[in-house]
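anyone seen this seq b4? input:
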Amino acid sequence: MMEMFQDLMKRYAALMLILLSGVAASAQQPASTLQGRITDELGGIIIGAPVFIADASGAEKTILTNSEGVYQFKDLSPGAYKVRATAEGFVATEEHSVEIAAGRHEQLDITLRVAIAEQKVNVTMDSPLSLDPENNADAIVLRGKDLEGLPDDPDELAAALQALAGPAAGPSGGEIVVDGFKATRPPPKNNIREIRINQNPFSAENDRMGSRSIEIFTKPGTDTLTGQASFSFNNEKLNSRNPFASNRAPFQARLYAINLSGPIKSQKASFFLDLERREINDNAVINATVLDSSLSPKPYSLALLTPLRRTFFSPRIEYQLSQTNTLAARYNYTRSNLQNAGVGELSLLSQSYNSLNSEQSVQLTETAIINKSIVNELRFQYVRGSGAQSGNDSVPTLRVLDAFNDGGAQVGRSSTLENRWELQDYVSWTRGHHALKVGARLRGVKITDISPQNFGGTYIFAGGLAPQLDSNNRVVLDAQQQPSLVFITSLERYRRTLLFKQEGLSPAEIRSLGGGASQFSIATGDARARVGQFDMGAFVQDDWRVRPNFMLSLGLRYETQNNVNSNLNFAPRVRFGWSPSGALGEKSKTVIRGGFGIFYDRLNERLSLQAARFNGINQQQFVASAPEILDQFPQVPPIETLQNLSLNSTTTRLANDLRSPYSYQMALGVDRQLPHHYTLSATFLNFRALHLLRSRNVNAPFTVPASSATAALSARPLGETGDIFQYESSGVFNQHLLVVVLNNRFNRKLTLFSRYILAKASSNTDGAESFPLNSYDLSTEYGRALSDIRHRFLFGGTISLPRHFQLNPLIVASTGRPFNITTGHDSNGDSLFTERPAFATDLSKPGVIVTRLGAFDPNPTAGETIIPRNFGTGPAYLTVNARLSRSFSFGGKANSSTEAQQNADGGERRYGLTFAIQVWNLFNRINAGVPIGNLSSPLFGVSNANASNFNLSDGGSTAAGNRRIEAQIRFNF
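predicted toks r here
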């Protein structure tokens, strides 16, 4: 690999010398220039449009328009030329004749007429409104200076894009698509040409609604050798202290990035090479409550290093096979190494493990122009990923629920090998007023996973009712000389266990005094599991311009996969766009849009893998709550002991009637062009999902109300075969959204965008791994969804300041996220800790807990009202981020617009240098994370960590500092 890389570098250096020699030779003649701007009929600039120029002998050159829609041919010899331009979604222009005089600068602007075909045009935000389904006014298109304002770190970039996409309709966030293929994270920012968010929501080509899609397009090769090198830096001295850490751990982040682009063979082949290295000594913050040497509760806070190293390498080649066929090939390699993973918040240092992951992918895209109206695009991707984790599992894990986690990490020596492939074939053509597209996508995956998870065992201590103790740890008696009962925390139960063990009490006596472990679990058997999965999606789409001011889009999609019994997954889509007074070629100041569609979600192969692993044969998982097992704490009972006690293992399975979740989605909105280049869009979305995934213990013991504090357990419905955790598709989700978007592109120096979202989301499941309070009564599960953030606001843009500075603000605000409130103990014997309390009606009842959120009864009796799911609301979120940059250009004149460095004064030079400062949380506001909702936790109602970036459920690390300042330098040539 290194020899091949060195050979490529030699070839690129030779090409650069040839180019420089050509420039020097041509500089001796009186140079002539031809330039102009490519726009559509409505005045919108067109970026990346190929422009062709041919001299009298027929020799032809090609160049792409830059971010301002401008092309420029330099160093032309005097004479007659033919010029033409084309762009995807437009009718190619006829040839324009131009006479070039010696030493003259000629101007030729070209207007392209919109074709009825796909119409994937890059219009700017100030362009007149279009009926095109991919140019809805609430879409966000980022390129050029707007793209520069985004974070450089890929994880932070992903969080920023999720925030820009907003709470996409449905329970899951927006998905990232890179060059037509789904991805888990975006590529390095230096590799990105353009980002599109919320385009064509009801296209049958997409398996998910378009508002949930973040489309990223990477840079192609260029006609001359160009490149970029950048370095970003941040350490703890530039950051403010983390308010949730008692100490400041060392922190440093270094990001190196290099990319090169240029021709391999003129007018035939080009390349783009990207290399990125991240070296981050990140932090994790432990914020728990533990016991000191005298067994007194004390806060424990510690910030420590979690070093991360990640390397990304990606070459791309584009080859013109013929006049009508183009092949693009890309290879991606990513390798990451993380130390001290698994530590932070409640998990102490002993929980740490190391992780090593790598991924390689090959992507091929072949585009064929069959004739003037038919285009075929064929894509193939192969991905091979591997991962390994190593942690200490020689001692059992100790979980004192929502107080602290200690003991072994229980990952052992785990490894995963994944092989994925994907094939897409799409054909689009035009016929009259119809733009049609048909295609299919085939995907397959095979996973071999070795996971000795919990092979060392786990002890759990939970809260619950117990005798009240005085200051001398003696039982307090009530008026009837019976032990007075109180609700104790999980930490108090653990304290009593250690205390009374030291006093020499027997396990039975310790348990009678409120001590003793609540549950023990351990896994054994074959750690290896395999799964394979295949899915297919096919579609047909027709964008029909019924009248000049009315467009109707009709589509039908069909999906199927194995591991699911439902195969009749037809998904019709319809969408319309109507301008009350507009006609083709006229400005449309108002466009009314609407759409309806059915969308299916695929069953994740990881669920099938879990079912294959814990089938009771390959791997057994024992969950014990019997005193004879729990009283052995802290020793791990031998597996033979568990088997001799006729303890049945817990199995996981897929329901026989499992089917693909699907949703009905409807949208109705209006786009309005306002004065002074403002564009306003207001859209109402309604979303209803059925057959969402959840888990349920289908063999939990029935409970019979009893007068005592514990419930009497009866027989299991499926016999004494142990707990059976079953993945089911019985969940529902309803969501209403009002999205208001106000954009403005005043001029090339000032662009602004803002978005406000009013939302309400309700469901009876929060995902495939969420369990109900009672496996036999789901009536109380319907309530707020975890994604039910009522108000969100986002503001950003690009502002050119005096003295050639550029400011990119990004403001994100939202109300609090919901969180669930639970009792923290297993009262129904299903081995789960999902019980919710009731609203307390008698404050004198033993165990009632009074909090700032209300008075709760953690031991409800018949007739009491159970609190709704996700009853709590976390703190609001507000962050003001900003990037300030200054660019310089220098050196001789650039050879072409693709290599020109645009200076703030409009000059074009061969080299560019940019200095930038990125500030996260400019005003150092403390944004607390979601509070702990376990009533038996000593930290109930307390946030023990910062909120993630942009208050997302998975928005990247914020442990390094409350306010972070990152410096960057970038060199372009």
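Residues 262 and 338 are 35 Å apart (CA to CA). The chain is about 10% helix and 50% strand. kinda curious what u guys think
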